[in-house]
Sequence to fold (244 residues):
Amino acid sequence: MKKKNITLCAAFLFLSLAATGCKPRQTPRVDAPKAVATEEKQQPATADTTAAPSPKGPQIKDITSRVTWGYRPANRTKNDVDIVVVHSNYHVVDQARQKFDFNVDGCIKQFRDGGTSAHYLITRDGTILKMVDEKNVAYHAGKSALPDGSRQWLNSSSIGIEVISMKRNGPTEAQYRALDELIKDICSRYNIRYLVRHSDIATPLGRKDDPWGMDWKRVCKSVKAEYPNITTYNIPVKNNPQFK
Fold:
């Protein structure tokens, strides 16, 4: 009788569980936490191996610590600068004997001796040397005015670039590439309205005839392809028939 009652109770319990939709308890999976933990450990490793983006703009060597002359400390912003001026420079070894070269230290010494400077100097191999911080006013333009007569004394609103070259030895291909990259980089960071040569702005007209031996149309064409609203000039200079 006792065995029969147990059997009836077991049957009644089974029917009750079936009626309520209950299912027997399952043994939990022990590998699920491992999968999550493995995924969490792999994420930092993936992030660590991601390559950093390449630096944008031209490669520039900073020598501002060497240049302690030829500029006025300032705190210019992008709204204060709207002119890029291109110059030429070379080293005078012996003026009497008409001996010149492209020695970089010699060029820099001449800037120091004259109390002048520029923001950038481009060597014959295309190396861009940063001589003066862009926020400061470099003494590179001297007595100057925009050809349209709208402004004078342009140092305070310009960035000066010196290219080491001579009248019979114009810029190298490496210098053209470096100049193009540098001007476009400056244009990307400032509201540049004018791209001019020293000869375009020096007053009175004809006081300066640099940059020497430079294909100015080539320079302007490349820059204006990306920045078409920039104003450029092509004012002939009698002292330099190599101007193009």
Summary: The radius of gyration is 36 Å. The CA atoms of residues 22 and 218 lie 85 Å apart.
